[in-house]
Amino acid sequence: MIKRFFRYYKPHRKLFILDLICAFALAISDLFYPMITRAMLNDYIPNKKLRVLVIWGILLCVIYLVKMGLKYFIQYFGHVVGIRIQADMRKEAFDHIEKLPFTYFDNNKTGSIMSRIINDLQEIAELAHHGPEDFIVSCFLLLGSFILMATINIWLTLIIFAFLPFLIVFAARKRLKMSAAFAKAREEVADVNATLENSIAGIRVAKAFENSEYESRKFQTFNGRFVEAKGRSYRAMAEFFSGNGFIIDVLNVVILIAGGIFTYKGWIDYADFASFIIFVNIFMTPIRNLINLIEQLQDGMSGFTRFCELMDTPTETDAENAEVLENVKGKIDFDHVSFAYGEESKEVLHDVNLHIEPGKTVALVGPSGAGKTTICHVLPRFYEIGDGKISVDDSDITKVTRSSLRRHIGIVTQDVFLFTGTVFENIAYGKEGATREEVIEAAKLANIHDFIESLPEGYETFVGERGVKLSGGQKQRISIARVFLKDPAILILDEATSALDNATEILIQKSLEKLCKGRTTIVVAHRLSTVKNADEIVVITEDGIKERGSHKELLAYGGMYAELYQSQFAMA
């Protein structure tokens, strides 16, 4: 774990080494004062060496001036190293998240994921800056002060340093308790973030159902658990610091008593005793720093452990020697495909066989939960199938790169997601580096250009978070424009118009007809009126494919499709 942590220093090693050198020099400068004090008390003052006294006083001022510069460098550039390491980790975590499979996001809350790459990494940045610096400087000061104190009186020095084992044993015992408490507190912070993110995202639903009090109680439950977890961590921290503080206070009493006895016996003179007390104060500084470091180490390393858990989550990978899928015509084959969302879950797809010719439109209809949307998810390899094979243009999709496969597949769903930004940015998302002319042409094809032009800022109008400033039909047409810009060979329409009113649906349907032209299209729909013109309609149930054929053929067959169609027509 430690080795893995220090790997992140490598890109910033020059600045990090300079920071350590400055910290080392700062530690040396702290040892000058008691040495000069001892010389003044033993020599310069008793022997009235005023000139030497003044020179050493001036020299001390120069040392403190240098010390000020060293502190500035450490405080500024030391934190710069920490924040750069934090930025590197955050970028690495974000890139990793982008490659994680859908199953990870199915099983983890958005707020919890955000906590790992924001809150946890903040503590890691502090540890990255202060950890090595405090450890090296503290160890040097302890060693340096021990040597210099030993030159004054070795026995008094040994008495003082004999208290170190008590501090170490006490700190080690409390360290485990602190570690567990801080880890639990982090878990509760993640839950609070997840609840907050979920409540804010669903604020309109909460207001519509007048459930603000319920949301408040739900949030307070997690908030209360967070307070309890934090309270336990602070209790452990209080035990840690108060116990260590008591041992240090007792040490000060021992210094006074032992030093007084040594002075009384004549084993040490007054000047050396005064210098010794100053040395002890310097000796206390690294002790306190090491104690603080233990707390910081627990906080930072618990965050780094959670960061590593995220980074160790397996990402989507391509097969060895995977080929790039090019010049796609759009032929699709499902060959005895079976799939379940978990090892212990019931199969959603069982032995599915489906063949779609290039440029043809196939509609998937049937009851909810039969696997229609699942077929749309396994084709672009959002999920890996259990058995069977899926091919595009006779190429097994597991043997081509995911990026090249998905590049040739466009998806329009019922739940349109628009990014916070402008209309232009959301349409241009379909093609990296798209020109303004290309975006406008895509908008025209999606029948949304005139509406965009009517907006106060046209294509530069901000759509709000998740496109909240736009209607459902407007968002849908922007998503269609995005797919027009992508220009895929294969198109998936998953309930693309089910949430729209009839007038808007007719308008969107015209845009979709243009979009489907010349592309292999898979349409998932509950409104059978929207799939009458499909080249083939496939009826899917929990038992697999039940019926298949054209609209006329299935009506003439008088089976499940005919019943569904007649029931919808009767309701209409």
Q: What fraction, in percent, of the residue positions are helical?
A: 55-70%
SSE run: HHHHHHHHHHHEEEHEEHEHHHHEHEEEHH
Low-confidence stretches: none
Number of helices: 20
Which band does the percent of strand residues land in? Answer: 5-15%
**What's the total number of strands?**
10
Spatial strand order of the main sheet: 6-7-8-3-9-10
- The span between the termini is 64 Å
Specify Rg, calculated over alpha carbons: 35 Å
pLDDT averaged residue by residue: 83
Class from secondary-structure proportions: alpha/beta
Largest sheet: 6 strands, mixed
Structural write-up:
It is a single chain. With 572 residues, the protein is an alpha/beta fold. The chain contains 20 helices and 10 strands. The protein has helices at 2-6, 13-44, 50-98, 102-107, 110-117, 119-152, 154-161, 164-201, 203-208, 212-265, 270-311, 372-378, 402-407, 423-428, 436-445, 449-454, 472-486, 502-516, 551-557, 560-571, and strands at 332-339, 349-356, 361-365, 387-392, 395-396, 409-413, 490-494, 520-524, 536-541, 544-549. A hairpin with a 2-residue loop joins strand 4 (387-392) and strand 5. Helix 2 runs parallel beside helix 6 and helix 8 packs antiparallel against helix 10. The protein is elongated.
Summarize the structure.
The protein has 572 residues and is α/β, with parallel strands linked by helices. The chain has 20 helices and ten strands.
